[in-house]
Amino acid sequence: MSDGRWTFLSNHGHVLVSLARDPDARMRDVAESVGITERAVQQIVRDLVEQGYLRKAKVGRRNRYEVAREAHFRHAQEASVTLGEFLDLVVNRTGAHTF
């Protein structure tokens, strides 16, 4: 967020939500929607893939991302919640905001 106010989600969370909404998004588009650099998005995506939160597949010349909906949050406070349950709250089936 460019206005300096805090948000509930980290940039990792924002990137994850963005890719859940549009699995075929280009890193440039994700960066623009999150408000961070393309390089930062690339590092976050690497982190999420390495930790098993995202799966990446090559489709032609592009990448397609799939959220590991069965994965759980890392912090003990939210460890009982899966990514799928969380995403169901913030992303509907068509990819639009639910709020």
Structural summary, described in words:
- This protein has 99 residues and is α+β, with helices and mostly antiparallel strands.
- It has a single domain, classed as Arc Repressor Mutant, subunit A (Orthogonal Bundle), CATH 1.10.10.10.
- Helix content is 40%, strand content 12%.
- Strands 1-2 form a two-stranded antiparallel ribbon.
- Strand 1 and strand 2 form a beta hairpin.
- Helix 1 packs across helix 3 and helix 2 crosses helix 3.
- The longest helix has 13 residues.
Distance between the termini: 18 Å
**How much beta, percentage-wise?**
5-15%
Number of strands: 2
**Biggest pleated sheet:** 2 strands, antiparallel
In short:
It is built from four helices and two strands.
Helices and strands, with pairings:
Blueprint lengths: L10 H11 L5 H8 L3 H13 L3 E6 L2 E6 L15 H8 L9
Antiparallel strand pairs: 1-2
Helix pairs in contact: 1-2, 1-3, 2-3
Organism: Nocardioides psychrotolerans
Protein name: MarR family protein
Pfam families: HTH_24
Give keywords:
WH_DNA-bd_sf, two-stranded antiparallel sheet, alpha+beta, MarR family protein, WH-like_DNA-bd_sf, 4 helices, disordered C terminus
